[in-house]
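[step 3/7] fold_predict: job queued, chain A
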Amino acid sequence: MTFEKQVMQAIAEINNTQLTHLNRQLATEAMLEALLDRVDPQALPAIAEEYDAALLRLAEGLPPDMQRPDVWQQWSTLLSDRQRYVRELAALRGTPGAG
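[step 4/7] structure written:
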């Protein structure tokens, strides 16, 4: 096999690996969103806190130049948005809101 073909094959394998990871991430995000819709609103603040703590702990395993906090922020934002939504909905209904 020529060098050019080896390079093309390596690029194709990297592309396939990236697509596999992206699809796994998509499926994981969909599952988490579905599960989050079923979580007791009172549990959301604790989940957000535990998520942030776990994220910081696990991120220590990545070299700083490989860390992408802007990507991690999406779940913190989602949890915050969900908490805000639950509070606003509770206020509209005149019932006590979650956290």
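[step 5/7] annotate
The chain has a mean pLDDT of 91.
Residues 1-38 form one domain.
exit 0
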